[in-house]
Design a protein that fits this description.
Elements (H helix, E strand, L loop, with lengths): L1 H31 L1 H10 L1 E6 L5 E7 L2 E3 L9 E7 L4 H16 L4 E7 L6 H10 L6 E2 L2 H12 L6 E5 L5 E6 L4 H12 L1
Parallel strand pairs: 4-5, 5-6
Antiparallel strand pairs: 1-2, 2-3, 4-7, 7-8
Length: 191
C-alpha cells in the first residue's frame, strides 16, 4: 500500500514543480514581449480633456503616475470617474462625489469623464443641473474613450481611479464608489 501511495505521489510532485518552472519562464517572455512594451508605452500618455464648463485639463500618466500642470490639481488627491447619464449607479453616486468634493475641496478633486459619445451638450447641462453636479465633467468623447482604454480598458461604469497627492494610484473602484473608503483615503492624506 505504501509503494502504491509513493507511485501516485511522485508524479504529482513533479507535475507541480514543473508548472512552477514553466510559469517563471512565461513571465520572462511576457516582460520581453512587444505587447508588454506597447502597454508600457501607452501608460506614458497625455490626455487633453475639455470640460463642459469650458476649461482645458491636461493629464499625463507617466509610468503609472498621474501628473498635471493644472494649479487646481496640484497637491490634491484626484478621482478620475468614468460615468454616463444613462447609468443608474453613476447617477446614484453623484451626491457622494458632490459631498466629498465640497467637504474636501482643498485636498480632493473629482474629474468626471463622460463615457458617452456624441452627447447633446444642452441635455448634459440639464442633467448636471438636475443633479447639482459640482465637479468638472470632460466632454470630448474621443479623448475620453482613449483615456478609458489606456488607463485600464474601462468597460463597466461607473469606474473610478483615485490618485494620491504624489500622483500614484491609491484605489480602483469598479461600480459604486465606496464612500467610507474614499473619505478615509482623503482624510489620511490631510494628516
Amino acid at each position: 500500500m505504501r509503494k502504491l501511495y509513493l507511485i501516485f505521489l511522485i508524479p504529482i510532485v513533479l507535475l507541480f514543480s514543473g508548472c512552477n518552472n514553466e510559469d517563471e519562464s512565461a513571465a520572462i517572455v511576457i516582460k520581453d514581449s512587444q505587447s508588454f512594451k506597447d502597454l508600457k508605452q501607452q501608460s506614458n500618455t497625455e490626455y487633453k480633456l475639455k470640460t463642459i464648463q469650458g476649461k482645458d485639463i491636461t493629464l499625463t500618466v507617466d509610468n503609472g503616475v498621474l501628473k498635471s500642470n493644472d494649479a487646481e490639481l496640484k497637491n490634491k488627491m484626484v478621482l478620475i470617474n468614468f460615468w454616463a447619464t444613462w447609468c443608474p449607479p453613476c447617477v446614484k453616486e453623484i451626491p457622494v462625489l458632490n459631498r466629498l468634493y465640497d467637504d474636501y475641496k482643498n485636498d480632493f478633486v473629482v474629474i468626471g469623464v463622460l463615457y458617452e459619445k456624441d452627447k447633446n451638450l444642452d441635455e448634459l447641462r440639464a442633467f448636471m443641473q438636475e443633479h447639482n453636479m459640482k465637479f468638472p465633467v470632460s466632454i470630448n468623447g474621443d479623448e475620453n474613450f482613449r483615456m478609458a482604454k489606456n488607463i485600464n480598458n474601462v468597460k463597466k461604469i461607473p469606474e473610478s481611479y483615485l490618485y494620491g497627492k504624489d500622483g500614484k494610484i491609491v484605489e480602483k473602484y469598479i461600480g459604486l464608489v465606496d464612500e467610507e473608503s474614499l473619505e478615509n483615503h482623503i482624510k489620511s492624506s490631510i494628516k
